[in-house]
Design a protein that fits this description.
binds FE2/S2 (inorganic) cluster, 0% helix, Rieske Iron-sulfur Protein, 111 residues
Length: 111
Amino acid sequence: MAGPSLPRPGGVHRLDAFTEPPPGEPIRVDVDGISVAVYNHDGHLYALESRCTHQGGPLDEGEVSGASVTCPWHGSVFALATGQVERGPATRPVRAFGARMEGTTLVLEER
Ligand code: FES
């Protein structure tokens, strides 16, 4: 039996009636079944899948410093722009999205 269909890589996701989070206060949204942390940092929007690849910590509750976010559970650090691991214990990147506003719609593009 087939499982739920997942958004295809390279897809675009839209969330209407979205209000940008204030700087320093990331928020979590669910878009097409994906839980995404959205950050407003240095005048840019960034979006990462919100579950840390180590043990699932909430990256929307992580501390943002420079262009990185630190997982609140065990301290893994991920680049906001790419989701790459900058410091473990995580070894796998989190999914990163290009994020922009179109009016009041949040547009996320899978990379
Ligand atoms: S769950 Fe994020 S570092 Fe462990």
